[in-house]
TrEMBL record:
It comes from Paenibacillus albus. It is found in: Cytoplasm. GTP binds at residues 58-61, 130-135, 174. Keywords: Cytoplasm, GTP-binding, Hydrolase, Nucleotide-binding, Ribosome biogenesis, RNA-binding. The keyword Amino-acid biosynthesis does not apply. Belongs to the TRAFAC class YlqF/YawG GTPase family. MTG1 subfamily. This is Ribosome biogenesis GTPase A. Signal peptide: none annotated.
Amino acid sequence: MTIQWFPGHMTRARREIEAKLKLIDIAIELLDARVPLSSRNPMVDDILKGKPRLILLNKTDLADARTTDKWMAYFADMGHTSLAIDASTGTRVNEIPVRVKQLLHEKIARQISKGITPRAVRGLIVGIPNVGKSTLINRLAGRAIAATGDRPGVTKGQQWIKVGTEMELLDTPGILWPKFEDQHVGMKLAMTGAIKEQVINVEEVAFFAVKELTKRYWDSMSERFSLTNPPKDYDDADEIVRVMEDIGRKRGCLVSGGRVDLEKASGIILRELRAGNLGRITLESPEDMM
Ligand code: G4P
């Protein structure tokens, strides 16, 4: 489900997270490895207010592994511990409790030195819609707990889920909102499927996708769609549309008069991208910020 965010929703979401922060030792911030910047809430540092934090780059099965490594180095430079996971299959998910304990070792050591037996560390998963929060909670719990597609303000009774013997997790995640002011953020989230078809213009997103993908991943694009002619100028809209038409022709998206049905071609491009059929693709790299 796509959430329409208004200032009132953001205020409520923020309050909900702040209330949950009081209950936990560590925040687990979930990002989409394909768009680590666009899937990051712009106010996350302010909202989490210095709580110990583990950053998870999720959906690494769909992301470019080399760029994921660069992002991990980037977060390390910012002083954050990060881990690259795939919540849908569980890859490296079992390292989460280990990293959490490492991040909290000073607090735990202090408790032990005071003669207190440390209780299980308590965590909260936070992230924007569709980054995989519910999938991860279910994976960590080893059973279906969280309904996917949670909305802010739709709360149920909160419970602690045991993750092994030394960690507990709140069963409802903290839902954050993305950086809507930047139009490219919206486009990238739509490309990855985080913003749903009903609220986007498919052709507009596919146009943006073809521009980005031919620039960054021409080899994968040309192989998947049997293309031979890359855009000569990425800023020339006619050239991008020409590539979209080439794809449409290859996939038989034709209407009367031999014209290409761009809407149909756009749907195919986005479906194949999201399913990972174009290979592992990351749309943002730390170098873009330099
Ligand atoms: P949320 O709670 O943060 O909103 O996200 P949720 O767990 O509902 O996950 C959103 C979609 O992302 C789900 O797809 C889920 O299966 C998929 N997903 C989560 N983690 C991973 C991952 O590591 N790799 C891959 N490839 N997919 C992942 P869905 O149920 O099909 O929903 P949708 O595609 O219709 O949005």
